[in-house]
Amino acid sequence: MSDLLTRLRARGWHLTAQRRAVAEVLHGEHLHLTADEIHERAVGVLPEISRATVYNTLRELVEMGEVLELSADGKARRFDPNVTETHQHLVCRGCGALFDVPSPDVSELAPPRAHRHGFTIDAVEIVYRGLCPSCQAEPVRPPDGRRPAG
Amino acid sequence: MSDLLTRLRARGWHLTAQRRAVAEVLHGEHLHLTADEIHERAVGVLPEISRATVYNTLRELVEMGEVLELSADGKARRFDPNVTETHQHLVCRGCGALFDVPSPDVSELAPPRAHRHGFTIDAVEIVYRGLCPSCQAEPVRPPDGRRPAG
DNA sequence: TTCCATGCAAAGTGTTTGCAATAAT
DNA sequence: ATTATTGCAAACACTTTGCATGGAA
């Protein structure tokens, strides 16, 4: 419900100028920035903030459960401030574009106990993969312009 | 059905000693090795094989659709040779252990057209996150032994 | 001969860490 | 005073790339 900054204040987290800058960058619901993008934007707010502090802060936010970490694209992690509404992600194979989508009912999806290897399960994450409109037009265009074999 | 090496032969792929070594390492159904682990094992078969060749070969196999790439843990990618049976993955938050689980019926899970942002969707990937039996015993023990804040 | 695959080493990303300086209680 | 946080730079882990060599068609 409330935004990240409000939740952090409510939780009594020690809010330095740097941590506030990161939290401000993460304001919003449909944001999926990489750590470096967050650093770039945080520099706009607080010019002397360092990459290390951004990484440290993000790690802490993830550990506190106030930010989600997405590893949908194998490359840089993305950070998602929307932890209050369960949702899933749509990812373009061509350009990596990433969108939130509402979650279907996942209560029936967990594997039967016989296949759980003794695990407890606390989250069901779904990634829908496909092509965004512009990558449908020009077949697959990976970052380097190479074509897939096939 | 058939194993990777057989499929590659059937497809007429130019099978050098190096590519064969990689394919042999990837023999099996429930394997989720990183590129470096694959290189290590391939060296056991063909001592002079280089990392670059392993990476190149893996990229080609993924592009051909003969191997799946998993990015479930944000760190190193893992390569999954089981492309013949749709399945999903169970991942431990504590130690990163990763298991295959049978896929539930995903035909009803795709988001309604209104939420697809014009994407085509060709795959639905599910990651179940939780704790494996040994990480349940000793709370969370990330690779470096640090405890999450709480 | 022509082309493709390989190996090496270097460069490129993305991320973490050691440590001294600084700011907060 | 004491403790926590920051910034810097170096270290690290993972992956890709340029180029000369070598083998296959």
Please give the CATH architecture of the largest domain in chain A: Orthogonal Bundle
Find the CATH superfamily of the largest domain in chain A.
Answer: Winged helix-like DNA-binding domain superfamily/Winged helix DNA-binding domain
- Number of E strands of chain A: 6
Please list the strands of the largest sheet of chain A in the order they lie side by side. Answer: 1-3-2
Q: What would you call the quaternary organization?
A: homodimer
In short, what is this structure?
2 copies of one chain form a homodimer. Helices cover 31% and strands 21% of the residues of chain A.
What report would you give on this structure?
The structure is a homodimer of 150-residue chains. Chain A has helices at 4-10, 17-25, 35-45, 51-64, 133-137; strands spanning 33-34, 68-70, 78-80, 87-92, 98-102, 120-131. By secondary structure, the first copy, chain A, is α+β, with helices and mostly antiparallel strands. Chain A has two domains: 3-80, Orthogonal Bundle (Arc Repressor Mutant, subunit A); 87-136, Dna Ligase, domain 1. The first copy, chain A, has a three-stranded antiparallel beta sheet. In chain A, strands 5-4-6 form a three-stranded mixed beta sheet. Chain A is globular and about 50 Å long. The A-B interface holds A 60, 63-64, 69, 71-74, 77, 88, 90, 92-93, 99, 101-102, 104, 108-111, 115-133, 136, 148-150 and B 60, 63-65, 69, 71-74, 77, 88, 90, 92-93, 99, 101-102, 104, 108-111, 115-133, 136, 148-150. Chain B binds a DNA duplex (25 and 25 nucleotides) through helix 4.
